[in-house]
Amino acid sequence: MRRLLVALSLLAATLWSAPAAAQARNQLGPLCTTDTTPADQMIDACNKIIALKVFRGEQLATIHFWRAVGWNKKGDYSKVITDATEAIRLQPSQAAYNLRGSAYYDKGDYDIAIADFDDALKLGPPSGTIFHNRGNAWRGKHDYAKAIADYDMAIKADPKAAFSFQNRGISKQALGDLDGALADINQAIRLDPSLPQPLINRTAIWRAKGDLDRAIADGSEAIRLAREKPPANIMTPPNSVLISGYTHRALAFEAKGDYASAREDYKATLAIVASDAGSKANQATAKVRLSLVTETSAPIPRDAPSPATQPTATPAPQQKPGAAQLPSPAPAARGVRMALIIGNGAYAHVKALANPANDARAVAKSLRDIGFTVSEGIDLDRSAMQKITRDFLREAARAQVAVVYYAGHGVQVDGRNYLIPIDVELKPGTAMTEAMIDMDTIMAGLDDQVRTNILIFDACRNNPMAQQVASAGANRAIEGVSGLAAPASLGSGVTLGAGTLIAFATAPGQVALDGEGANSPFSAALSRHVGTPGLEVQQMLTRVRAEVVSSTKNKQVPWSNSSLLGEVYLAEK
């Protein structure tokens, strides 16, 4: 970014020959157009210059650009976009497009960001900074090959670009190339040992490699550097480095079994104000993980076998009104592969469903047959459903592959997805969502960047709560007559994390069929194909989709979205 600011600085030096008051020229100009000016002073000075109404065209564009820089320092990306847009209207420039694209990136609007970076590259000579920033947006979209290509261009333009080496390493890690990732991250650290960000990324690599002591050491050094000298780069979102550092060190502490230290780091993460999409996603994960480790009393010794791999001597006691089975052991040679399976059909206060219990049992059996450790719950009330979900999320911290399958009623409320326990009852004056299970919580609890997550929801039946909503006069927006929202609208900063696939029994917002036989059309097809040896998971879902479309005569079309980082096989080849 700094190299693009230079051109604007040269223009700013000529601004003050315009007919404005001498005092305003001498005092306001440098405050507005110097990137080291504190944000509030910069914005105030630019406001006063604009209020003079003496500048036009390219000069006024420069002032709007610098005010956008001030807003960027504060993390107010909507105002960055507004000022950068006005600067572009008055006089398009590489710097303005780059700044606006970076703001869209920080808001999580990656496609718009890429369009702005494309326009910036068209306006001037190739810029390593813009290639780097566009690489970030491709990485946000999980298109790691394009991200790496852009980082290559950035490094070619500036072989000492530490951040480009760092982010290329992150992309290689996402593609499973841990050694290549480590080489790039190490180079970034060699180029600038004072940067905390590469150390944070190396923390994640060590955790993925299982070297938790090194992960914790790197996380601790990153936090020390970030606290000692906050990042000066104006393109770094406020507080984002500390939030990331505490989150990654907490995950390493948790994986090691040091829950007390993990709790302190998660609390530190949540105590910091987040402004950008990445930081909000980290805080969403921290919130869920904190609640899980807070409930955990005794730490697990580092070298002890994971509880998830140990046989259960006795079955779980009956939980009224439903039953939840504890995990069965999985063969250790395959690594820890865990599944949470829930089927809710015996609803007490809304329309009952005949098939979810059968669906859940069929899918659970198919996964057990291929070696998964399965936590199974049938017809669970809210308390039982919450417990089995939280127990699973806690144990899944040590899994290599996690599968979540739910059959039953599901709804959208204010664009968020909720799974419905069998005891749900909406009463006048009650909060609707308090009676349900938030799907965002499940996704946030699994979003730690070192696991493959497969989430499958046969939960798009007709809205079971329409009459209750109307009679209760609820003031929250329950959408339409049917199921779940697309992952893009998951809310709370939760996004489809790298290494995750999510599948719905039908297209988002559409109605899935419960079926006339013992199973729903979707679950019948899923249980038949999920255990097929050597069938990659996305190919498996394609077969499921084709079978459902055929059996329902095009009335139901299953839908999925993936950020998986390679081929995933649930059953061995």
Automatic annotation (TrEMBL):
TPR repeat positions: 94-127, 128-161, 162-195
Signal peptide extent: 1-22
Listed Gene3D superfamilies: 3.40.50.1460, Tetratricopeptide repeat domain
Statement: the UniProt record of this protein carries the keyword Signal: yes
The keyword Signal appears for this protein: yes
Pfam families on file: Peptidase_C14, TPR_16
UniProt-annotated stretches for the region Disordered: 297-330
GO MF terms, alphabetically ordered: cysteine-type endopeptidase activity
Residues annotated as domain Caspase family p20: 335-464
A single GO BP: proteolysis
UniProt keyword list: Signal, TPR repeat
Top-level division of the source organism's lineage: Bacteria
Biased composition (Low complexity): 305-325
Protein family: Belongs to the peptidase C14A family.
Protein name (database record): Tetratricopeptide repeat protein
Organism, as annotated: Bradyrhizobium amphicarpaeae
